[in-house]
Amino acid sequence: MKSMLFKMSGVAIATLAATTAIQSQASAALTATGTSVLDSTTSLEWLKLSATDGQDTTTATTNFGGQGYAVANGAQVNGLLSSFFTQFGLPADSLSPQTGDPSAAISAAQFSAWTGLFGSTFENALPPILNLPPVINSGGRFQAAPGVIARFGMLQDPVNVSGLGAGFHAIFANDSGPADRVGVFMVRTAVAAAPPTIVPTPALLPGLIGFGLSVFRRKQRQVTTA
């Protein structure tokens, strides 16, 4: 059964180095702040997918282009996934449309980490009688090649709507299916933080005052003896 959320395709983007042994507890590269996610590895700042939920690339560019964001390309998305899987552990299977593996099983912890960073773009509660968690997707469009829009997302699929099996999945796909189930991968060069302004604390004020008085007295003595 083909996915209700994604239709598979062999979108050509850079292959994830899924065979490389990477420590899952590496230092955190991805940190969420406000409406964005900073990748310290690439010095890129990503708009959360939930911020563009249901938007196409044109609408997202209109809404966020003035803030320096642009639609991400395949290499940038690949770099983001490399940072994510370095930080949170490799997926259970190979994940690369280029090598014919557009989907991979991921863990519940990886799905939770992804949605914690980027938010969700689709949630569908299942009938209460099933006593199952909802179907949740967190995905977005990106420019896989000039003129070619593709999708990537992570899916919580408790009833196998994707045909990939019940569980959690990372999926590359072509740009088809309902628009309201994905956002857009928007990226910009990270804005350097301004250096902090040092404000004297109450504990420092007596010392500063004393230092100022000593300088004043020294100058007074110099004037007197001149």
Description:
- There is one protein chain.
- 24% of the residues lie in helices and 24% in strands.
- It has 226 residues and is α+β, with helices and mostly antiparallel strands.
- The chain has one domain.
- Strands 5, 6, 7, 8, 9 and 10 form a six-stranded mixed sheet that branches. A five-stranded antiparallel sheet has the order 1-2-3-11-4, sandwiched between helices.
- A hairpin with a 2-residue loop joins β1 and β2.
- The N and C termini lie far apart (97 Å).
- The N terminus is likely disordered.
Low-confidence stretches: 1-26
DSSP E strands, number: 11
Helix/strand class: alpha+beta
Distance between the termini: 97 Å
Q: What does the average pLDDT come to? A: 81
User: How much beta, percentage-wise?
Assistant: 15-25%
**Largest sheet geometry:** 6 strands, mixed
The helicity comes to: 10-25%
Query: How many domains?
Result: 1
Write the H/E string, N to C: EEEHEHEHEEEEEEH
- Tell me the overall shape: globular
> How many H/I helices?
4
If you compute it from the alpha carbons, what radius of gyration comes out, rounded to the nearest whole angstrom?
A: 25 Å
